[in-house]
Specification:
55% of the residues are buried. The chain has 2 domains: 6-58 and 370-420, Urease, subunit C, domain 1; 60-361, Metal-dependent hydrolases (TIM Barrel, Alpha-Beta Barrel). The protein is an alpha/beta fold. Helix 2 (98-114) crosses helix 16 and helix 9 (258-266) crosses helix 11 (289-295). The chain is globular and about 60 Å long. It has helices at residues 81-90, 98-114, 130-143, 172-180, 196-199, 202-214, 226-232, 234-240, 258-266, 275-280, 289-295, 313-328, 346-352, 355-361, 394-401, 429-443, and strands spanning 6-14, 22-30, 33-38, 47-50, 54-58, 60-65, 117-124, 146-151, 188-194, 219-223, 248-252, 270-273, 300-301, 378-382, 407-412, 415-419, 422-423. The protein is 34% helix and 21% strand. The strands form 2 sheets. Strands 1, 2, 3, 4, 5, 14, 15, 16 and 17 form a 9-stranded mixed beta sheet that branches. An 8-stranded parallel beta sheet has the order 6-7-8-9-10-11-12-13. It is built from 16 helices and 17 strands.
């Protein structure tokens, strides 16, 4: 797809680049990259976008979303973790056809773009067949988003693949690495979503980790899942067996011990906090954001599943902040009552949602900040909208009051995917998503239970 040549003039830039900081100025985009940042830039060939009344940020980076569930949006905001697993992963996952994966991923991508997410790490545990996997990847290419595709396990016989499973990771990941996602600098790249010692046996965990490293892939792993996670202490097991490394991102960590969180920091690994999901869904535990900071880990942020929570990062940031206030008030969960836990503010949350997300995905060399030479993944938020005025502190205004409707422009790899508040393309996607949902419900023998058409 052709790149745009764009000059954004007169915006407030929150670069997330420590050398540049925040400044009023311009951004020149050409050949898919950020060419220049500074005051009074001129370019006679570029299309000019008026940045007055806006903040320009690097795009939000969602480091953990199960995109295949995009057509099941909003099914169970009051579900527990066990209800979600039973009804979605186990109950519906087995009935997904490749076309359902494609439209679910595409719907999730388009909503993400609309809300200012320019990169998604797609935790794809719907690898029911090679065709399912290829359909998921194709949707990422089609949508225009930057995607880190995390190849996972099937949702057929879902129970046999989790919580003590003795099945090794699907070998089709070798084909994907060899034939499909071979270029680690492309807009869509490959990672490995592994179960680790919390969801599989220690022997399987070691086999899968060595497989991912043989293929040169970064690794994501769900850990600290409720009482089971507290009992298993997966991070500690990995450290004890010499398998813990800087190529790993640990998702949730809700019931991982403080010692385990310090192990993450000591080994240069990263973490993803799905704060909105964790406060909505009983059974996982509470967001570990403050404990991670105490351990020396600056976390990234993620949505997780749109069946439970909204698919935008504004809600994720607010949920993290709301839970922190319970920590400060001494009303948080038992793991968050240690005195003197460090706190974070709105500026930190924007950092978690951008540059820290890029670091967790291993792509901070090319995105996550407004830095000349990096790929042009950025968003423009209108802070002259009524819900954000008077925007005395732009970061606080965005975190406290922002929503997808404030996102005026979204650029990924130099292409404008949303402009003037209007998402480009995808006019029929949500009709197709509704049809996919209905097909899945019929296959599973379920009623729509009042779901909107």
């Amino acid at each position: 797809m052709p790149h745009d040549r764009i000059l954004i003039k007169g915006a407030y830039l929150m670069t997330q680049d420590e050398r540049l900081g925040d400044l009023a100025g311009d951004v020149l985009i050409a050949d898919g990259t950020i060419q220049e940042i500074g005051p009074d830039l001129q370019d006679g060939q570029a299309r000019v976008i008026d940045g007055s009344g806006t903040v320009v940020l690097p795009g939000f980076i969602d480091t953990h979303r199960h995109n295949w569930q995009g057509a099941l949006r909003g099914l169970g905001p009051a579900w527990t973790y066990e209800e979600y697993r039973s009804r979605v992963q186990i109950g519906l996952g087995q009935y997904f056809e490749p076309r359902d994966v494609h439209i679910g991923n595409l719907a999730a991508d388009l909503l993400s773009i609309d809300a200012g997410v320019t990169t998604v790490r797609d935790e794809s545990h719907i690898s029911n067949s090679p065709e399912h996997t290829d359909a998921a990847i194709a949707a990422h290419w089609e949508s225009g988003i930057r995607a880190v595709f995390d190849h996972g396990w099937p949702s057929t016989e879902a129970e046999a693949w989790q919580f003590g499973s003795d099945r090794t990771h699907p070998d089709d990941i070798r084909r994907v690495r060899r034939d499909v996602l071979t270029d680690d600098t492309a807009r869509v790249t490959l990672n490995a979503m592994l179960r680790g010692p919390e969801l599989s046996t220690p022997e399987v965990a070691e086999h899968d980790i060595r497989l991912a490293r043989e293929l040169g892939l970064r690794i994501s792993m769900h850990v600290g899942l409720g009482e089971w996670g507290a009992k298993q202490q997966a991070i500690g097991r990995l450290a004890g067996s010499g398998l813990l490394g800087s190529d790993m991102t640990f998702i949730h960590c809700c019931t991982s011990t403080d010692e385990e969180l310090r192990m993450i920091a000591a080994h240069g690994a990263t973490a993803s906090v799905a704060s909105a999901l964790e406060v909505f869904m009983p059974g996982l535990g509470q967001p570990a954001t403050n404990r991670l900071l105490a351990a020396g880990v600056r976390p990234s942020l993620s949505v997780d599943t749109e069946t439970i929570v909204s698919g935008d990062m504004f809600g994720v940031m607010r949920a993290a902040l709301a839970y922190q206030q319970l920590v400060v008030a001494g009303a948080a969960g038992p793991m968050d009552r240690a005195p003197g836990l460090p706190t974070f503010d709105a500026a930190d949350l924007l950092s978690f949602a951008t540059i820290e997300g890029a670091r967790a995905c291993g792509i901070d060399d090319r995105t996550g900040s407004l830095t000349p030479g990096k790929e042009a993944d950025l968003i423009m938020i209108r802070i002259d909208h009524a819900n954000l005025l008077p925007a005395t502190d732009p970061a606080a205004a965005i975190v406290a009051n922002g929503h997808a409707g404030n996102v005026d422009t979204v650029v990924v790899a130099g292409r404008a995917l949303k402009e003037g508040g209007v998402l480009k393309g995808g006019e029929t996607v949500f009709e197709q998503a509704a049809a996919s949902r209905d097909r899945l419900f019929r296959a599973a023998g379920l009623s729509r239970s009042g779901a909107a058409g």
